[in-house]
Amino acid sequence: MTKPNYSGTYHMVEQENVDAYLTDVNVALRKIVCMLKPTKEIIHDPETGAMKINTITTFKNFSMDFNIGKEFTEDLRIVDGRTCQTTVDWDGDKLVCVQRGEKEGRGWTHWLEGDKLHLEMRVQGVAAKQVFKKAE
């Protein structure tokens, strides 16, 4: 089965429950993050499984560079001061990330529906969702 190519530039168009998802982040930073409208630039090579996800905002930028199915040490100190062991793998056409570290059940899922990129972020039973629209 051929996997989808996630490559493209996507602009956030909606989000829900992000404040509850970020309860372990200080209040001031949490409020700033909830006001941001990030852009995601994804470079994906379906042949090799290499993927780079750049999240760009007016506040901070974050880059995640990995190979699908291979565990790596993710440095999230710029985001929330932590590092974790991360694996991103396929579940059908969805990309599922599992982050092993200080919090149970932390991770995210990306999937495509038409020109929309969906992101569900999870930690300790709390889920937040963002939706991005592919740039023309």
Automatic annotation (TrEMBL):
A GO term for molecular function: retinal binding
Superkingdom as given in the UniProt entry: Eukaryota
Keywords: Retinol-binding, Vitamin A
InterPro entries named in the record: Calycin (IPR012674), Fatty_acid-bd (IPR000463), ILBP (IPR031259)
Family label: Belongs to the calycin superfamily. Fatty-acid binding protein (FABP) family.
Function according to Swiss-Prot or TrEMBL: Cytosolic CRABPs may regulate the access of retinoic acid to the nuclear retinoic acid receptors.
Name of this protein: Cellular retinoic acid-binding protein 1
Species assigned in the record: Pundamilia nyererei
